[in-house]
Amino acid sequence: MSATILEINKLSKKYKGVLALDSLSLKVEKGTVFGLLGPNGSGKTTTLGILLGALRQSTGSYSWFENGDATGNRLRIGALLETPNFYPYLTAVGNLEIVAKIKKLNNPSERINSVLKIVNLYQRKDSNFKTYSLGMKQRLAIAAAILNDPEVLVLDEPTNGLDPQGIAEIRELIIAISKEGKTIIIASHILDEIEKVCTHVAILKFGNLVRQGTIEEIIGGDNFVIIAANDMALTKTAIDENPQLEVSKTTETEITIKVSKEITTEMINQYFFDKGIVLSKLKSHSESLEKQFLEIIK
Amino acid sequence: MLHLLDIEYSKVKKYKTFWAILIIYATLIPLIIWGISALHFGQEGTPMYWKGSSLFKFPVVWNGVTWIASWFNLLLGILIVLIICNDFNYRTFKQNVIDGLSKQQVIASKFLFLLALAITVNLYTFIISLLFGLVFSDGGSMFSDIYYVVIYFAQTIGYFTLAFLFSILLRKTALAIILFTLTIILNPILTGVISLAIGDNSIVQFLPINVISELTPFPLQWLTDMMSANPEAQKKSMEAASMVISQPIRTVMATIYIAIFVFLSNLILKRRDL
User: Fold this and answer.
1) How many domains does chain B fold into?
2) A137: which chain B residues are within 8 Å (Cβ-Cβ)?
């Protein structure tokens, strides 16, 4: 049984004549990891800013937990928007104490220590925020977002400023949290990130929704297979004879063919073998999100 | 309400500038009172003789101390600008909203904190007045002019809400401090120029800064008492010369100005993204 966590209805935002967001409608179901994709300036942060009460929409509406845009909804959400925003003269603990008070957390000190351990900041918990590196600031922002063990986690470019190890850690954290049945909404332009963790994707361009669906739907139904054989000319003729195979790209040494999902590499191998061609190379590769993304936003 | 105050207090608890300004305020006032109380002029026993310490006798002490304390409202106003603009600079207003406060709660929490600070400052002024009054008095009716403490409270709130409005309007610490300071420093010049231009000095008394600053006027009564053989007549003539607004009406007007400052601040915040 799935419940709707978030419903966006024709949301628009105009900044001094520029339409940053144009009538966006979306639905996010419980338990999904929802990726909001788009190039810089496509309206990702604007959308999240409106959903989190930091910006006012020009028109349209949204509803969290089927409960409208009530302020109390945000106590059930953990969010990281744009930059980590903290008091520079306070320590990590001092800053999280303020977040805990806003979130009305009981007995926060234990939880504060535990989230600081999760994001690997525990050693520096008594240092002032202003002494932190960009990556540490980002970790603290993630700690603040997960502080109240929220039902929904909203992350805007969560891996900004992190080192490769940090990126991997955050990715694992996101996967672990989603396994608890929590809903996660991530905005990013790092496609690799989205592809590795998201179940659903929406792609924005100039404030418009250009594509929406599960990650499989977006990546597409077609598979690509790279083949090579001694006699390339004969191989090509064999491909042309079969309506199920379609040449996508040819180089001197290999041919990339496009096939539908049902066709396995084994079937392809068998086909060429029957034609008297022994393949020296047979490699399946699914289209990456990146390629699709670039295609879609073109 | 306490929840919001608690959040605000957590923000300043370890903010050194906040405590430094408060300590400067709390130290300077008794120091200046002590300094004035040590002054004296003229020959003892003659009508021209005055002792600084007489400014701190009951009941004139309530006027005296609040008048001196009012000089430092500029300092406290700057403190208000700092703590409000900090939340803009650090984008923490925005973060507080993202974390779960409403925009109205964010404003309310700052306003509550401003009220709590004004109450603290007034309590301090009350205690200082009481202590110096007890030290320098030789009888006299202790609490007859104590309404000055209440009026001083209105004045503090007046300056605070003006600082609040400027901070919300400009959002930049330096700009808001400059505007706030200039408004207060240039006000006497503006008042003088307008008075000269229209050849009348009664209308300028209705200007917001004049209304607010004259809430704690120079202890005129004390001066005339000091210098005149006929204090009653002197007092009446001087009052008539300088004031067209009575103190109760001035307090009501100050309250109206405060309401306007708060209303404008709210209006700006409602219309703008954080």
Assistant:
1) 1
2) none
